From TrEMBL:
Catalytic activity: (sulfur carrier)-H + L-cysteine = (sulfur carrier)-SH + L-alanine
Organism: Ruoffia halotolerans
Family annotation (SUPFAM superfamilies): PLP-dependent transferases
Protein name from the UniProt record: Cysteine desulfurase
Family: Belongs to the class-V pyridoxal-phosphate-dependent aminotransferase family. NifS/IscS subfamily.
Superkingdom of origin: Bacteria
């Protein structure tokens, strides 16, 4: 099997699985219980929070465990927006047209609740710039939202510079850092945002666990509670904590950070290896997204004339797993909104592009097999109709 869809999700590392297994089997006490086995679990969670804070260079009190980044994005954006409006600070939010649905669908909801939202489009070079944010900011603007790395095309957004400018304007600033946490060597203590998020299944941890980092920025404007109940997570997100997955997530991040530089260098080499191999075989392609500010581990390529959804099915039959865009649209293969934002005048690109994304286990052999598969498809050697008959 060749798995090249690590931007969608990653395999859980064996060391992480062991941590989760041991915790589930041996430490099943409730962290809120007052007897010893509960206290032991509570202690391990406190340690995990401390370790996560150290890895990200933030304060322990700023860490909230969540069920993933969708929850964290929803919580951070809604809470900060609603609080600002309640305080009479304004109703205008600036974000980009290339955000993940867990951000875009929140801002769309906020629009139905009296908020005004400006969606910044990538410029002709495929960039989202700080100046674009500044230009549309008014005295009604309450907050800015931007992702760190785009999940479909791998563009890097200027979150550090945006943070400086947001801070100067006394705006809250939310960063969806899901595709950066792990591979990117960012010092989050230097990121002047009020909230940022992470999701364990993007860095070889389990699905259904993530975090929100919140730093209060104005005396009156504080993040509100997400869930009311027993008062866990400092009364902000009630519910018995998923300690085995919290421990697994922190272990996954620890392992990822320990190999960060080495892995990033590997991604750069793999990126060039992929492009060189395609060129050598005279396979026509164009890279989608920002050409200058991009990560090497997410490659979105336009194969002119080839319908991506058909290529995906044929590759699937060949045991090669890639994607045509965001996998988070519940298995649907609709045209990519992100590619529409980048290339509004080139509709053929929207449905003829593939995403190839690397993980720590990706090798050159994986890329060789992907290329072989592409070749087989172009030579008509993978027959959809025939295989459908076989499956039936
Ligand atoms: C940029 C980005 N934000 C948010 C999410 C949602 O994360 P989760 O799966 O933890 O809800 C994803 C997942 O694909 C993503 O890529």
């Amino acid at each position: 099997m060749v798995y090249l869809d690590n931007a969608a999700t990653t395999a859980v590392r064996p060391e992480v699985l062991k941590v989760i297994h041991d915790s589930l089997l041996n430490d099943y006490g409730n962290p809120s219980s007052t007897y010893r086995i509960g206290k032991k679990v509570r202690h391990s969670m406190i340690q995990a929070r401390k370790q996560l804070a150290e890895l990200l260079n933030v304060a322990e009190s700023e860490v909230y465990f969540t069920s993933g980044a969708t929850e964290a994005n929803n919580w951070a954006i809604r809470s900060q927006a609603e609080k600002s409006k309640e305080l009479g600070q304004g109703n205008h939010i600036v974000t980009t047209a290339i955000e993940h649905p867990s951000v875009t669908n929140v801002t769309k909801y906020l629009e139905t609740q009296g908020f005004e939202v400006t969606y910044i489009q990538p410029n002709e070079r495929g960039e989202i710039t700080v100046q674009q944010f500044i230009d549309v900011t008014t005295n009604q603007t309450i907050g800015w939202i931007a992702m760190a790395v785009n999940n479909e095309v791998g563009s890097i957004l200027p979150i550090f510079e945006l943070g400086e400018e947001a801070n100067e304007r006394n705006l809250w600033f939310h960063v969806d850092s899901v595709q950066a946490v792990g591979p990117m060597a960012y010092d989050y203590s230097q990121l002047k945002c009020t909230t940022f998020v992470g999701s364990a299944h993007k860095f070889n941890g389990p699905k259904g666990i993530g975090f929100l980092i919140y730093r209060s920025f104005q005396e009156h404007n504080h993040l509100g509670p997400l869930l009311y109940g027993g008062g866990q997570e400092n009364k902000m997100r009630s519910g018995t904590e998923n300690v085995p997955y919290i421990l697994g997530m922190v272990k996954a991040l620890e392992l990822t950070f320990a190999e960060q530089e080495e892995t990033f260098n590997k991604y750069e080499k793999l990126h060039h290896y992929l492009l060189d191999a395609l060129n050598e075989l005279d396979i026509e392609f164009e890279i989608n997204g920002d050409m200058n500010n991009r990560v090497p581990y997410i490659n979105n390529l336009w194969f002119n004339g080839n319908i991506a959804s058909q290529m995906l099915i044929k590759m699937d039959l060949d045991d090669v797993y890639i994607s045509a865009g965001s996998a988070c649209s519940a298995g649907s293969l609709t045209e990519s909104d992100i590619l529409k934002a980048y290339y509004p005048d080139q509709p053929e690109r929207w449905s003829q592009s593939l995403r190839i994304s690397f993980g720590y286990q990706t090798t050159r052999e994986d890329i060789d097999q992907f290329i072989q598969s592409l070749k087989k498809i172009s030579e008509g050697k993978i027959d959809l109709w025939h295989s459908k008959k076989l499956q039936n």
